[in-house]
Amino acid sequence: MKKIEAIIKPFKLDEVKDALAEVGVQGMTVTEVKGFGRTGGKKEVYRGSAYVVDFVPKVKIEVVVPDEARSRRARGDREVCQDGAHRGRKIFVTPIEEAIRIRTGERGKDAI
Questions:
Q1: Residue 88 in contact with residue 60, Cβ under 8 Å?
Q2: Which of 33, 53, 54, 38 is nearest to 87 (CA)?
Q3: Burial classification of residue 81, based on how many CB atoms lie within 10 Å of its CB (0-12 exposed, 13-18 middle, 19 or more buried)
């Protein structure tokens, strides 16, 4: 099993959710996050004073999938998340050793 984490712009959430549903994802965790990358933020002016906005609002989606579905779903995430800009989106894939559904005690693929 693999865990796919995608950090995207908030306005892309519904589009990503729909695309993942089309490839069989039955559940996901969504978290509102803030972050910054290589750009280091942007300058804003408020009441005549300039300041740097370091943290930009993002959304993090987490999905756990069987190994055989990982590449197809990550590729779908990547295609949907692209918006023409060159910043602000990341996809991470990490191995999951074990999954257990607390309510039923199911393990592995049956638990996801």
A1: no
A2: 38
A3: buried
Residue carrying structure tokens 């950090």: 7
Query: Mind listing the pLDDT tens digit for each residue in 30-44?
Result: 999 988 777 666 777
pLDDT tens for residues 46-94?
A: 788 877 777 888 899 999 888 776 555 556 555 555 555 545 578 888 9
